[in-house]
Amino acid sequence: MASNNAPKKTGNFVLTAEALNEALPKFHFGTQAVHADDFVSSHRAIAPAMHPAVNHRYARDPDDLVEMEKDDPNAPPDPHVYPRYTAPNPSRSEIVLKTLFGTSVVSYSSGLSAFHAMLVLVNPEEIFLTEGYHGVHGVIDVISKLNGLKRLSLDNIDEMAQATCSTARAVGAILTVDSTFGPPPLQDPLQFGADMVMHSGTKYIGGHSDMLCGMVAIHPDRVREGYEEALREERLVLGSAMGSLEGWLGIRSLRTLHLRGRRQAKTTECLVA
């Protein structure tokens, strides 16, 4: 007679969320991209579901209600309330991004939204930058109408690369880098002293010409100083959170980022050889 009370096997390895989080930093970049979000959902589907909902129910039992500030948006069952705070797909993509960048990452609706968020957070009186992306200069034009932000040019990029980090630290300046065309694992400006690194995820990270998003990776020192919390609070009122569809597409894209980056780099070498 069959029985549901079969003896439990002993000595088997059971992967827990804690064990995975401890092991992830030792894994290959590609392995991290595939498994960083394994324990996000309470169901067992390998491919994440798309959650278009913009409203979520509170717990029906009042005793189960938790203050929003104490919620973990990445723990099942999902305690999401409204997508300008958190939503299942964008939050899940941020978990993978955090693992790949090795630090906290805040996602946005576009690269320019990410740049705008950095400007709002820092609120500088002067900004030094190279020619860069024209859209970034457009954001500066808008901000300068509000606070008189002065734009100064950094013309010699070779000298800048050697001196920027130490010079910025010496005078108390905040150093940010637009690393859109140098995504992980190709380069990591945070390792060289950048305070925040911005990406237009629409390009390399998205990689399929079907999504618009941006992100800001924050140096661990700045995370401890409250930068991540401030960016999330300001994103809420700026209304620049990543959409659920983009979060879902972003997870798909991150799974193959290391393969696409390697192939694109190799193709570039062949073209310029």
Automatic annotation (TrEMBL):
GO BP terms: transsulfuration
Protein's UniProt name: Cystathionine beta-lyase
Domain of life: Eukaryota
Family according to the record: Belongs to the trans-sulfuration enzymes family.
Pfam families: Cys_Met_Meta_PP
InterPro entries, sorted: Cys/Met-Metab_PyrdxlP-dep_enz (IPR000277), Cys_met_metab_PP (IPR054542), PyrdxlP-dep_Trfase (IPR015424), PyrdxlP-dep_Trfase_major (IPR015421)
Cofactor: pyridoxal 5'-phosphate
GO MF annotations in UniProt: carbon-sulfur lyase activity; pyridoxal phosphate binding
Keywords from the UniProt entry: Pyridoxal phosphate
